[in-house]
Amino acid sequence: TDSHLHHTLFMQRAISSRRALLPKSSRGLSSVAADWAFPVPVTFGAGRAAELPAKLRERGSNRPLLVADKGLSGTPVVGGLFDSLAAAGLQPRLFGEVDANPTDLNIVAGAAAYREHAADGLVAVGGGSGLDAGKSIAMVAGSGRSLDELEWTRPPVEEMSCPPLVLIPTTAGTGAEMDSAAMYTDTSRRVKFCVAHPGCTAQIHVIADPLLTLSLPPTLTAWTGMDAVTHAIEALSVDSYHPMCDGIALESLRLMHTWLPAAVADGSDVAARSHMLAASAMAAVAFQKGLGAVHGLSEPVGAVHNSQHGLTNAILLPHVLRANRAAIEPKMDLAATYLGLPPPPPGYATTDGGFERVAAWLDTLAEQLQIPATLAEIGISDETAEECAAKAVANPTGFTNPLPFDAEMYSGVFRAAVEGRDRGRLQ
């Protein structure tokens, strides 16, 4: 139709005009610069962070609170964004006191900073830490509600007020930019909880600029990347009918199969960073279907031991995969076929199915990315096995695991991960 042709020509002109704004090293990536409307508005592509002031103004925000974690707040990434806001005539304030695993205390302090600044919008920058804290702060400050009232398993509170939110990921892992769900640690109970609200989701605009991920060191690139791999594997494994999420999970895995090792090997590879940023977002969309026992256990482990989330997932993943084998073999057949995985090397079970091919790929990937083989290697002993298992059983994130896990099963996975049993080339 004429209207469709007009829209197509308009988008072609818009994309062409953006090409000239890209750094020369990134212009080959113009084909992956795009604007998406699903499931939230996303401004995607190298150099697109320059559009932040305009995005805020479009949404009526002139006094934004900029939220980042302690490790990122003093870096040129955050400094550059802050300066761009000030240069555009906005009046930003930085709240950079978020812990690596955001806590209830961080969120209360951030909400107070929001009110003191008389803020009218919020920009959250970072990996899961900054993004989850920013979303939580926006929900608490905007609504006046407590974190307990906003807990995601409760019915959504009515008359929710949430300010405009711009979410800017600097890692390709959590995909936390794609919805309102936000994790935090309750410091008194040593338990991770999640807050969420559809009213907050409606306020989100994402700016996904791969240039902001170039400075991420290889270790964090690997750990956050394995978080995204875990999201896609667990979402695909959930035993419910959702072919849309399954398709997104598979394509996310295909991108990560190719581009995660490349991003770790060369952090300046803008193509790798771009495709990983997209794959991370896709994996997060896929797990709208649910997650599983990897996250069911890794969240309590993180709350008790303050361990890095993606790294914890990466260590637990092969153990949970084998514990779930009986329920997920058809999905692993699908994944192995879609990824074109080769037969497993000697030492793995010889089967015609895809499970061993997926298991071998994940083991090889972990070795290639230098992921520690055991929880013991990151300072976690089996002393807290029963505590973490009990908290995992009560953790709703694991309720969609394809097999029901009780405390004994969680404890067994925890102890195997401490010792390195049931990982790698096992039958």
Q: How would you sum up this structure in a few lines?
A:
This protein is of the alpha/beta class and 427 residues long.
Which secondary structure elements does this structure contain, and how are they paired or packed?
Elements: H1 2-19, E1 34-36, E2 42-44, H2 52-58, E3 64-69, H3 70-73, H4 76-87, E4 93-98, H5 104-116, E5 121-126, H6 128-143, E6 165-169, E7 182-186, E8 191-195, H7 198-201, E9 204-208, H8 218-237, H9 243-265, H10 270-286, H11 293-305, H12 309-323, H13 325-339, H14 355-368, H15 385-393, H16 407-419
Parallel strand pairs: 2-9, 3-4, 3-5, 5-6, 6-9
Antiparallel strand pairs: 1-2, 7-8
Helix pairs in contact: 5-6, 8-9, 8-10, 8-12, 9-10, 9-13, 11-12, 11-15, 12-14, 12-16, 15-16
Description:
This protein has 16 helices and 9 strands. The protein is an alpha/beta fold and about 425 residues long. The longest helix is centred in the middle third of the chain and has 23 residues, at about 245-265. The model is unreliable at about 1-30 (pLDDT under 50).
